[in-house]
From TrEMBL:
Keywords: ATP-binding, Ligase, Magnesium, Manganese, Metal-binding, Nucleotide-binding, Protein biosynthesis. It comes from Sulfitobacter delicatus. The keyword Protein transport does not apply. GO terms for cellular component: cytoplasm. In the C-terminal section; belongs to the RimK family. One of its GO terms (biological process) is SOS response. GO terms for molecular function: ATP binding; metal ion binding; ribosomal S6-glutamic acid ligase activity. This is Probable alpha-L-glutamate ligase. Its cofactor is Mn(2+); Mg(2+). The keyword Metal-binding applies.
Length: 460
């Protein structure tokens, strides 16, 4: 390597950590280098622990924060210049200065009281470096402007993420989310939504679980069952308040789970759907049916899932009987036009990050107009039209969902959205299409958690 001369302060970059510019104090009296870090939390398996931490690379700019993660290579007791000792995690990373780079060990500590965000110790100063202790910044200057530009995101490294899956079920979808995430080097923790509890305050809103505050996650993947929607969405809201990226937001899940609310959202965005009507009073039964059209009609409980609580009434008399029965149970329901030409088939489009990543045609079991796979239906891959693709994307966007299963009927007047599912199952569609759908979900998470360029401050 070509010889370099360092002054007592130099601009350096730590590309493996996504820190393109940081000022470091050169200290030959210290053995190990140190980096200013806060919110330091250990994660991952005990055999290969990692550490997640935040760095404010610019002194005095707490609003600029870069989240980093790295494997832990050691834990060391370090005594600072004022004689105080502390246990610190040690990580290995790459130091880049003046067009050259080499590996160094760094300890993590809170240097909030120090002007230098980094200290370069003897171990980092290899044989090709001379020190001129009376001078500073002898190597090329870098610039903090990089934290305000899009290049911050493009240069950000792929790092190990800590991800929470909110789920109470050990099913195919949850297992695949864990398996694919771990294959990519992430740590994926499954959390029982109903065992979360919340500390709600303005300074530090927190989510607790089993007697401890939950750590900081890079992303949350909600897989919330319909029976716990109100509590599950309250937990997601808490993560949103903390600033954690949630693949599906609380508002979109709440709206999609309530059939009436969901149809109102679709109607407001002018998205095609079967004609639908809803009424609270039994006096309005005949008017309600007249709004939808002639029998056969579909009568649906507002809280129905997987085809349960969905009844096909083939005659006007049958429709009146079903409506009376639902009213007798004090159940909320809606009445919908039956799209005959769909012939017991629908199309499930899986939308991830605003794109249809897979689609399948589901056909109901013999004699069943419902095509749910949970009810014995079958599925096969299907090519969809541009209109169907656009409808599915618009429906997912209407609810602000990062992952959505959009169910369409093929009608004579174009695609009609039956339902938008905020916790779609992956088993049926992955097996029917042979696609790695969960991998696409992780592509989106990895892109979304990259650092955002900070706003520039206006000159006073």
């Amino acid at each position: 390597m070509e010889k370099l001369t360092f002054g007592w302060e130099e601009w350096v970059a730590l590309p493996d950590l996504g820190l393109p510019a940081i000022k470091a104090k050169v200290d030959t009296g210290a053995r190990t280098s140190a980096l200013h870090a806060h919110d330091i939390e250990v994660f991952g398996p005990a055999s290969k622990p990692k550490v997640r931490f935040n760095v404010h690379p610019i002194s005095g700019r707490e609003d600029i924060s870069i989240t980093c993660s790295a494997p832990i290579i050691d834990r060391r007791e370090v005594t600072s210049s004022n004689g105080e000792s502390e246990q610190r995690f040690v990580i290995a990373t790459t130091l880049e200065v003046g067009g050259q780079s080499w590996p160094i060990d760094v300890t993590l500590t809170n240097r909030a009281g120090m002007t230098s965000r980094m200290l370069l110790g003897r171990q980092a100063l290899t044989e090709h470096i001379n020190i001129s202790a009376t001078e500073r910044r002898l190597q090329p200057d870098l610039n903090y402007d990089v934290y305000h530009t899009a290049s911050l995101r493009t240069a950000a490294p792929q790092r190990a993420l800590r991800i929470a899956v909110l789920s109470r079920e050990d099913n195919y979808s949850t297992r695949r989310i864990v398996e694919v995430g771990e294959e990519r080097g992430h740590t994926v923790e499954v959390i029982d939504t109903t065992r979360c509890y919340m500390a709600i305050n303005q300074l530090a809103p927190e989510v607790h679980y089993d007697g401890k505050r939950l750590p900081r996650y890079d992303a949350v993947i909600p897989r919330i069952g319909a029976s716990i929607t109100p509590y599950g969405t309250a937990v997601i809201r808490q993560f949103e308040t903390i600033g954690t990226y949630c693949v599906n937001g609380s508002a979109g899940i709440t709206a999609s789970r309530d059939k009436l609310h969901a149809h109102q959202v679709l109607a407001s965005k002018k998205i095609g759907m079967p004609t639908t009507a809803f009424a609270a009073s039994p006096k309005d039964t005949s008017n309600l049916m007249a709004l939808v059209g002639t029998a056969p009609l579909i009568v649906k409980l507002l809280e129905s899932t997987q085809g349960k609580g969905v009844v096909l009434a083939e005659t006007k008399k049958a429709a009146e009987s079903v409506i009376d029965a639902f009213r007798g149970l004090r159940a909320n329901f809606l009445v919908q036009d039956f799209v005959k030409e769909a012939a017991g088939e629908d199309i499930r489009c899986l939308v991830v990050a605003g794109k249809v990543v897979a689609s399948m045609k589901r056909t109901g079991a013999d004699g069943d107009f419902r095509s749910n796979l949970h009810r014995g239906g079958s599925a096969k891959i299907v090519r969809i039209s541009k209109e169907e693709r656009d409808t599915a994307v618009r429906a997912a966007r209407a609810f602000g969902l990062g992952i959505a299963g959009v169910d369409l009927l093929r009608s004579e007047s174009g695609p009609k959205v039956l339902e938008v599912n905020s916790s779609p199952g992956f088993e049926g569609i992955e097996k029917a299409t042979g696609k790695d759908i969960v991998g696409k979900v992780y592509d989106e998470i990895e892109a979304r958690v990259k650092p955002q360029p900070a706003r520039r401050r206006k000159a006073g």
